[in-house]
Amino acid sequence: MKYVSEYRDAKLVRALAEEVRDVVTQPWVIMEICGGQTHAIKRYGIDDLLPDEIELVHGPGCPVCVTPLAQIDKALAIASHPDVIFTSYGDMLRVPGSHQDLFSVRAAGGDVRVVYSPLDAVKIAQENPDKQVVFFAIGFETTAPANAMSVAQAKRLGLDNFSVLVSHVRVPPAMHAILSGEYNRVQGFLAAGHVCAVMGYWEYPPIAANYQTPMVVTGFEPLDLLKGVFEVVKLLESGKVEVTNAYARAVTFEGNKPAQDLINSIFQESDRNWRGIGLIPNSGWSLAPDYAAFDAEARFDVGDIHPEESPLCIAGEILQGLKKPTECPAFGTLCTPEHPLGATMVSTEGACSAYYQYHQPLEVQGLAND
Amino acid sequence: MCLGVPGKITEIFEQSGLTMGKIDFGGVYRDVCLDYIPEAKVGEYAVVHVGFAISILSEEEAMETLEILKEIADLDEELGVDLETQS
Ligand code: SF4
């Protein structure tokens, strides 16, 4: 397939890993923010190809993992409502709330449906005027254009039976939080390519300068990942604090203007709780006042929510790059993808799940045939 | 949900006031909203997230990146680094 197979060429992957080996002279800790990249790194064994000096730590960029438990409990309460058709991206269905998950709500008779695009949820609302259709609008900057459009479209169509349960988070405030943390180890960032495809990377130079941390916008294929690592290592070794773009085929400095414009009209910045990390000021989006009528939290009484986390789970430390999944005593024993204790094991983009699934990474020689 | 996938635009049409496209993901076709890439043309490739195209892939940039990467690989071969036997 075009724009995919070319970037899995095993020979180039090895050659580039060799280049990294040639330029590195000392240990560096580099964080990939995005869970999609964590997944690809473990899948293709990219970290095994890199010299020992380079340690990749995994960031909080997994939307399923950082959606707060309280928000999941609210979703479960709304989905249990008899008049509600609850719609969600598929990967939220198995996320455990304090006492159940969306699958068990469905098994108990709730109308829970998986949608590919939030526009599908709008369509369900059009087709079911006697039902309340709620969409679980979660994610980072990559899903925000889609989620924002669903609200704009519902307004245009005059739908009063459509609402969204919003739990949106943004990458730049998370970078701030990680870099200013007392025990921060991150020295360079691979910035998430598709977040930057939407938002551009004009927000990053001030963060890089403030914390003296270079960043490289990076794509998702094995070659893209190695190119990102190579560029960030070169910056680190030369002491240059810059933000560069190793994913220029999809990302521009300005990003996607029409998407940013719609996001800014539907949403406003707000404080967000990140599961495992806690409150980060101005780190997310909520509905702007003009669209408050589409807020599911205002439309439904969810009762008292008292989220209860598993006391064993160290996902918070993993999401900040302080620990690796294998350091969790429950990893692979009490906690597995079939019986997850924390959100980083549920989502395929979660670090715990990636470590569990790709215990034996794909042989890189087979990459090109994949 | 958060994985963006590149696909080829094979058809552009209007639906409920939105610009939509039929996109070929290596043989699997899906209807995708193109409102955020209004300049897109049939035959171009776009990155798609949850049913929305968020950026057009630049062929020029894609080629350039690959060229640079291939130069790096060739350079190593010239220097006698045996790529096949490394682990
Ligand atoms: S292995 Fe399970 S319990 Fe341990 S940190 Fe990961 S998700 Fe939490």
What is this structure's SSE topology?
The complex is a heterodimer of chains A (about 375) and B (about 90).
Chain A: H1 10-23, E1 28-34, H2 35-43, H3 46-49, E2 54-61, H4 63-66, H5 69-79, E3 84-88, H6 102-107, E4 111-114, H7 118-127, E5 132-139, H8 144-156, E6 162-169, H9 171-179, E7 188-192, H10 193-199, H11 204-211, E8 215-218, H12 222-238, E9 243-245, H13 257-266, E10 267-274, E11 278-287, H14 296-299, H15 315-319, H16 343-346, H17 351-357
Chain B: E1 5-15, E2 18-25, E3 28-33, E4 45-49, E5 52-56, H1 59-78
Antiparallel strand pairs in B: 1-2, 1-4, 2-3, 4-5
The structure holds iron/sulfur cluster.
Keywords:
heterodimer; A: 370 residues; alpha/beta; Rossmann fold; six-stranded mixed β-sheet; five-stranded parallel β-sheet; 17 helices; 11 strands; B: 87 residues; SH3 type barrels; five-stranded antiparallel β-sheet; 1 helix; 5 strands; 40% strand; elongated; disordered C terminus; binds iron/sulfur cluster
In short:
The complex is a heterodimer of chains A (370) and B (87). By secondary structure, chain A is α/β, with parallel strands linked by helices.
